[in-house]
Structures are given as structure tokens and as C-alpha cells.
Amino acid sequence: MTVFKPTQYHLESLCCGSEFPDNNWELQCPSPHQPSLIRAVYDIKQIRIHEEYSGLYGFADWLPIEKMLQGSGAPVTYKSVGIAELLGLEQLYITFNGYWPEKGALMKSGTFKECEAFSVCARKNNSNGIMVVASAGNTARAFARVCSQNKIPLLLTIPLDNIRALWFDDQLDPCVRIIACESGGDYFDAIHLSNLAVELDGFYPEGGAKNVARRDGMGTTVLSAVTTIGKIPDYYFQAIGSGTGAIAAWEANMRFLEDGRFGTNKMKLMLSQNSPFLPIKEAWDQRSPVMLPMDDETARKQVEVINAKVLSNRKPPYAIKGGLYDALSDSDGTIIGIANEDAEKASELFSQLEGNDLEPAAAVAVASLIQAVNENLIDRKSIVMLNITGGGIEKFKREHSINYLKPEKIFPLNADPSEIKNQIAAMFR
Asked: Does a cis peptide bond (omega within 30 degrees of 0) precede residue 276?
């Protein structure tokens, strides 16, 4: 049996450059000078893929983990033929996250959120207590699966309108509990519930973009692509909600530059959102270093329209130092708005030409690639990485018996915060 050795690393603050150990689920600089992310700095600078480890943990050199958990899958990168020929791209590589056993993709939740969950839940100094995760759907499904399999106490908060995203092929362990905001609420409202929960004794925040394990788990998509291709891609395509995956891709790129064996270029981030919900695009198009104002009613109406509900984050890590604005600026990035009908057409094309179904957010990314080619935004001879963040869900459902979960409690959008906290506390007595 292979003996796993905890990854050696320390943390670095992007607000002041100070370095410190990962003692207790650190999410920020011990002495913050300004809002900023922290970053993991790994002792091993030249990554080695560990074939002896299963699933995601083959990338353990650049994951902040102390253990391996059961049941992980890893991103799979392959050179496209069908979509590549259609678009005239000579070097299109697809990094597939989801369920596609024929290609070795074994993420049973059908989404790259498993990369986050298996990294976060294996992180060094995993805090005691009940972890709280807010989600628009995919993240909840991934964390529920991983925490259930590994008996990690978890409270999920989710919009009730997205509850159909909580499907599983087996019964969850009672260590996973779920609450929701009422119909009409969105991801922002789910975050509100999670913020109230972590004010209670015995609860702690997963941390979202601030959690180095979440970002570096997402970054394994780029680790898969670069180590498969042998070079850093020229363009990186992904649909975004919070943009955390794009930040992770940018950070992984920087680690490969330090590695020194895969080229010296920075990938141009080619990101996309589902129209009409385009808050990040609208801010970036103006090169605004902060998000633009958006009222709650307008945001909720726009979220109702879009197919890719998981892309509905109103409070992304955009302005924070080391966040999405910095990643876009450093990579000379672009954000493309994609309508529902264009994403649907792209999903059909992918199914016909590549051979698997797409989660709606991934369809947005494929549509953005098609649009970028049609508008001559990329060089067709360049190396292009298309991050398929979710797929094979319908395939998985066809092959398995599926159970849908219901929340234990549903809270009105205008519920009294004290009453919410009282009811959450009562759930765990």
C-alpha cells in the first residue's frame, strides 16, 4: 500500500508579502493591510504526477493537503478532433471534468467542483466543527458527496430554485445537512444564510475563493492540461460565476512559469458569462477595478432567465488583491457574454462532435469559443485549452438510480437573522 506524505508548503499574503504556516484553516493574512487573497507556496517547484496516488491526488505536489480521501476523480485532457475541425483549430485541447468513464473521467457529481471538495476536505489543519458551504448547486452536490463518503460534518445553504441540482446515486450520510432560501432567492441569498450560520459556535466557513485548497483544487484542470500537452496553452476558455476557477488557472500558470519546463507564456483568460446576467463582464469592459452597482431585484430577475444558474454570483472575488481583476489584467483577458440559445446550440454540437453531454455552464464556455473563433479573437494555430467544467451528467443519470434531496428548512428572504440562527442551532442539538 502506498504511504502518502503530507504536502510541504507555506502561505503567503498578497497584501504585504508576509509568509506564515497554515496552522488553523487560514483564510487571510494574520495582519491584513487591505482585502487580499493568500496563496500556497509549495516546497516542490517542479511538479511530478504521482501515478501511485488515486484520482485528484496525483497532483499532490501542488495541493495543500495532509491526507487522501476516498472516491476522487481527476480532470482528463485530450486533443479535440470534432470541435477542432469544425472551428479550424489546429491545437484545441479539451480538459473534461465530469463523468466519462471511456475517457477515464470519473467525477460522479459531473462537475469540477469535486476538484475543490476533495482538496478542501483533505487540507492540512482541517478545522474541527461543522463546515458551512454556500452554493448555487454544483458545489453543494460535490461537497455533499465528498463529505458524506468521508464522514465530514457539513451544512449546505442553497437557493430553493436550484434544489434539483442535489441529486445522488446513493443515500447521504447524516453528517450532511441542507437548508435553503425560499423560491425567488439566488446564490447571494444562500451566502447570507451561510454567513449567519458561521456566527454560531461550532461552525466554520469553507472560505470560498479565500481557501487556498479550493483554488488549487480547481487549478488541477490546468495541471492536467499542461502536463498532457507539454506546454502552457496560449488561451484558456471557461465560463465563470465567481471567477475563482479563472484565478486558480492564473495561479497555476504562474507555478508552471516557476517550474520552467513548459514555456514562458501567460495564458490569455477567455472567460464567459450567461446573458443577461453579466456583472463581471460589465465591470471588466469598463476596466473598473471594482464591481458596478446592481440592485437585488434586477439581479434576481436576470438569474431567473439564465440557464446556467451556477454562474449567478453577485459578489465575486473581483476587486480583492490577487482576485479576478488582477488575473484579467495580468493575462490581458476577455469576457464574452453568451445567450441561452447560443449555449444550447453549442451543447448540441459538443454532444454530436465530441460524444458527451454538457452541464449548462460548460455549454456557455463552448459557445464562447465558437464566438471567439468567428470574431477572430484568437489565432487558430495557437494552443487552446477549453475547460469543460461539467459534463456527463445525463449519461450518469441514465446509468444509475438517482435520488433527489430536499432541504430540512426553507427560510424566507426577509426572515429575521436571529430566528434563522436559532433554527439552525436547533438542527444540531
From this structure: yes
Terminal-residue alpha carbon distance, the chain: 40
Give the separation between CA 332 and CA 327, rounded to whole angstroms. 8
Residue from 360, 345, 367, 352 nearest 391 by CA:
360
Q: Dihedral sign, CA of 86, 92, 96, 101?
A: positive
Structure confidence at residue 255 (pLDDT):
98
CA distance 176 to 422: 19
Structural domain boundaries of the chain?
76-109+213-397
H helices of 219-339, in order, are 220-229, 244-259, 279-285, 296-305, 324-331
Residues 71-96: what's their mean pLDDT?
97
- In angstroms, the CA 396 to CA 72 distance is 16
Q: Dihedral of CA 323/46/238/373: which sign?
A: positive
Number of other CB atoms surrounding residue 184 within 10 Å: 15
- In the numeric block, the cell 472551428 is attached to 87
Supply 174's cell numbers: 447524516
Q: How far is CA 153 from CA 125, 158, 423, in A?
A: 15, 17, 18
CB 362 within 8 A of CB 242: no
Those residues whose C-beta lies under 8 Å from the C-beta of residue 35, and which sit 6 or more positions away, are 15, 319, 320, 321
Cell output for 221? 484542470
| Average pLDDT of the chain, as a whole number | 95
Q: Is the pLDDT of residue 80 over 90?
A: yes
pTM score:
0.95
What's the pLDDT at 126? 67
Asked whether the predicted pLDDT for residue 1 surpasses 80, the reply is: no
d(CA 429, CA 48): 46
CATH code, 76-109+213-397: 3.40.50.1100
Q: How far apart are CA 211 and CA 132, in angstroms?
A: 13
List Cβ neighbours of 41 (8 Å cut-off, separation of 6 or more): 9, 10, 11, 12, 19
Distance (Å, whole) CA 268 – CA 333: 5
Degrees to nearest 5, angle at CA 120 with 244 and 123: 130
CA neighbor of 356 nearest in space, from 73, 88, 101? 101
CA distances from 89 to 80, 110, 198, 232, 367 (A): 9, 26, 47, 17, 15
Cα dihedral 324, 163, 277, 94 sign: positive
